[in-house]
Amino acid sequence: MRRLLVDTGPLVALANKAERRHPAAVAFFDRFDGALITTVAVIGEVCALLPRHRTPLFLRGVASSNFTLVHVPEQELSTLAGLMDKYADRPMDFADASLLWLADALGITDIATLDSGFHIYRTRRGRALRNRFS
């Protein structure tokens, strides 16, 4: 089964009809056949960016979908801090660091993102992430 990491941007576009990329996000997620994986940090970032009245509907949608939500274990927070230090010139935020950590942990290099930083980020093994959102 195909596995895809999902970043904040496509989820905000999917959940908010006022977003310019909303139609593209709807089409992308409608046609994707596989496992969608993200972190709780990404979900928190989406909720912070959505209009307040859209947040409950978004959370219900995630709860009833085929998303897998991953929590970053406490012992991995220093790893995320190291990633944020490494990419401080981008800058990398906590949600981005959580996805790069997850890419390493699960061996996944496919991602749906609107963030150009993911073209720069590399896994511990030096692998680039491939953006599948277009």
Largest sheet: 5 strands, parallel
- List how many beta strands DSSP finds: 5
Strand content: 5-15%
What proportion of the residues is helical, as a percent range? 40-55%
Rg, alpha carbons: 14 Å
Low-pLDDT residue spans: none
SSE topology string: EHHEHHEHHEE
| CATH homology-level superfamily | 5'-nuclease
Q: What structural category arises from helix and sheet content?
A: alpha/beta
Instruction: Give the averaged pLDDT, no decimals.
Output: 96
The main sheet orders its strands as 3-2-1-4-5
- For the record, the CATH architecture stands as 3-Layer(aba) Sandwich
The tally of structural domains comes to: 1
Assign an overall shape.
globular
- Provide a count of the helices: 6
Summary, kept brief:
The chain is an alpha/beta fold and 134 residues long. It contains 6 helices and 5 strands.
Give a structural overview:
With 134 residues, the protein is of the alpha/beta class. The chain has a single domain (3-129), classed as 5'-nuclease (Rossmann fold, 3-Layer(aba) Sandwich), CATH 3.40.50. Helices cover 45% and strands 13% of the residues. The chain contains six helices and five strands. The longest helix is centred in the C-terminal third of the chain and has 13 residues, at 94-106.
Task: Produce the secondary structure layout.
Layout: E1 3-6, H1 8-15, H2 22-31, E2 35-39, H3 40-49, H4 55-63, E3 67-70, H5 77-86, H6 94-106, E4 110-112, E5 130-131
Parallel strand pairs: 1-2, 1-4, 2-3, 4-5
Helix pairs in contact: 1-2, 1-3, 3-6, 5-6
